[in-house]
Amino acid sequence: MVIALALGAAPVAAQPAADGQRWETPMAAGDRAYRLGRYAEAQRFFAAALERAERLGPQDPRVALSLGLLAAAYQAEGQYTLAEPLLRRALAIAEGGLGPDHPEVAATLTALGALGAAQGRYAQAEPLLRRALVIDERVLGPEHPEVAGALDALAVLERLQGRYGDAELRSRRALAIREKVLGPDHVDVATSLASLAALYRIQSRYVETEQLAQRALAVREQALGAEHPEVIVPIVILGELHAEQGRFAQAEPLGRRALAVAEKALGPEHPETASALDLLAGLARTRGRYAEAETLGRRALAIRRAVRGEPSLREQQAVELRRTHRVVVAGLLVVVVSGVLLAGADLEGDVPEHLDLPVARRDAGQLKHWPAAAPCTPRPRPRSPGSTRGGRRRSSRRGRARRSDRTRS
């Protein structure tokens, strides 16, 4: 059973058997609910498990495991502020009881790092993820699936920072490990596939993007079902890909499917819902449906503000400039940004690292003399397929960290 494997070398034998059984029952139920994408239900079970574990003592390893999985369920629902203190408490217990170099410590570090990346706190996230990778490689070996999970989490962070070469190397290594150890159709392989697809889409490597995203979608549909929330990420990647190539008739059904799955499985205020809304808003704008685009875009922005806080004016400007670049690459005029942005005035200090300013300014300059179409709603930074959501215990926690696939693209 996965729960038993998760305990690893944890010193639990001294506890009465009945205590462990009472704890394992809600843990197993929560694990089943999580795998089915029923995250609110999983929260209730993991909270019950935590309550039972705490009766065994505040430093019992089962407390740390319960905290980590409850945090994963919160993070899967976009409730980042609730997830973080649970993970920090779990880390303190694991380090104190298992030592600083235990794989369970690495799993919690990966979860914390993925959470930080999802919130845009890159400087805090990177040392956590690097430490997790070092522990896993040293203790478990360079080709262990846990190493692949840490690699993918780091690749997401590097992609968000514009370090595309590093991100590609890590994602490819993670994919190779997972395919070799788990097989090409394992659901964790889809995490690496989606991560690479998100990277290649940003780089306009469209053929590779489509192949990877289609394969990730097929694996997840086969393993999890067509309405599981984990299908949202590859669907959105494919929709954005078609939109950038001007294939709007193919993009819009994908956007609507992603939105339907997100709203049903995750609710109307989840970051995954915002990603689908962003895609549909952009498509509505390109087709001249400006009122619809504004409604969708404002709704997406409200979700992101609730999750990550109010974006600064500079962040909004940088995002608008990047969208202008993407649209021009597609050969279409669908937005016009302000004169300040067209001039590229004094943006370097506040824009994300991954913004290609010289190209974006050049393309923005080509739009200077076109009439403004309609007010534009800022788009978020590309999400990472795999990092929006939290981590899991040793045997399965990293699989949940992929739900970041979140910060996902």
Concise summary:
The chain has 409 residues and is an all-alpha fold. It contains 19 helices and no strands.
Explained architecture:
The protein is mainly α and 409 residues long. The protein has two domains: 2-278 and 384-404, Serine Threonine Protein Phosphatase 5, Tetratricopeptide repeat, CATH 1.25.40.10; 313-377, no CATH class. The protein is 69% helix and 0% strand. α3 packs antiparallel against α4 (61-76), α8 (145-160) packs antiparallel against α9 (164-182) and α9 (164-182) packs antiparallel against α10. The longest helix is centred in the N-terminal third of the chain and has 19 residues, at 17-35. The chain is globular. Residues 1-17 and 310-409 have low confidence and may be disordered.
Features:
409 residues; mainly alpha; Serine Threonine Protein Phosphatase 5, Tetratricopeptide repeat; 19 helices; 0% strand; globular; disordered N terminus
What's the CATH C level of the largest domain?
Mainly Alpha
Q: What is the CA-based Rg, rounded?
A: 21 Å
Q: How many distinct beta strands?
A: 0
- Secondary-structure element pattern, one letter each: HHHHHHHHHHHHHHHHHHH
Q: Which fold does the CATH topology of the largest domain refer to? A: Serine Threonine Protein Phosphatase 5, Tetratricopeptide repeat
> What is the terminal separation in angstroms?
33 Å
Shape: globular
Q: How many strands, which pairing sense, and closed or not: the largest β-sheet?
A: none
The percentage helix is: 55-70%
Mean pLDDT: 76
What fraction of residues sit in β-strands? under 5%
Q: Please, what is the CATH homologous superfamily of the largest domain?
A: Tetratricopeptide repeat domain
Q: Count the domains.
A: 2
> Pairing-aware structural class of the strands and helices?
mainly alpha
Do you know the CATH architecture of the largest domain? Answer: Alpha Horseshoe
- Pick out the low-confidence regions: 1-17, 310-409
Count the DSSP helices.
19
